[in-house]
């Protein structure tokens, strides 16, 4: 059983711990929070004996855990991951793995230097129904056009409009639409088609300096992938993949519950396989498998770095600058 620590006591951390325990590969043995009481309260339902930490340096040097799930603000991913990796801990870091490609490349270098696993927690790629996309793409014939939509009105946007400065729309935390909602669009594209040959991006920036919404065209030799992302508006449009023989529709690609294939002149067919309710279980299992095998997955590393390169370029083109870039 792998001993798991967590950094960040929020809803997504709770969901991941639940998933990690469900796959029967982990036990929670350490929790970091700036408040000891909060750390103990978080651990109580999972393991009341888990050790609470309020200092990351002390935590990193302890022998209380083998692996750590990092779900802190984006701007802290790099510093916290490197600290843990340098102390021999395996790291699963919430998406995006870093603020920019320079940080991401260094993180993977540190992981490999210390013979530990670094894994970006992008769950979509490991869902059983995401595999169905890959399985049925050949039915579409030669591909030409792809549109990936993910637009979701942020519950924190009204706070921003009211004059507050929530993390979601604050460049100091390496945040904004492309780093959050847009990440799923870019990462799904790279997972399916690899890195694009060229990128053309646009975005609407808030006064805070982050993007509220935007679009990008990712160009491949024969395929054009258009991504549309927003944190200030809603969309019910599915992701669409067009080929010469037909079209595939994927509602809400981040959760990827099912896919629909409509070949030319034929009735639409829905493909779906069962998925567990807590879909973070699949990434938790994949993380555990890498640790047990004693090496990080090079394919997952390549996808994470490819996504980081694409998003770094998109931010460069749209003028979104973080303190980490300086």
UniProtKB/TrEMBL annotation:
All copies of domain GFO/IDH/MocA-like oxidoreductase, residue ranges: 139-247
InterPro entries tied to this protein: Gfo/Idh/MocA-like_OxRdtase_N, GFO_IDH_MocA-like_dom, NAD(P)-bd_dom_sf
GO molecular function, one term: nucleotide binding
Coiled coil regions in record: none
Residue ranges constituting the Gfo/Idh/MocA-like oxidoreductase N-terminal domain according to the UniProt record: 3-121
Gene3D superfamilies named among the record's database cross-references: Dihydrodipicolinate Reductase, domain 2, NAD(P)-binding Rossmann-like Domain
Matching SUPFAM superfamilies: Glyceraldehyde-3-phosphate dehydrogenase-like, C-terminal domain, NAD(P)-binding Rossmann-fold domains
Extent of the signal sequence: none
Any single Pfam family the record assigns to this protein: GFO_IDH_MocA_C3
Regions crossing the membrane: none
Name recorded for this polypeptide: Gfo/Idh/MocA family oxidoreductase
Organism: Vibrio casei
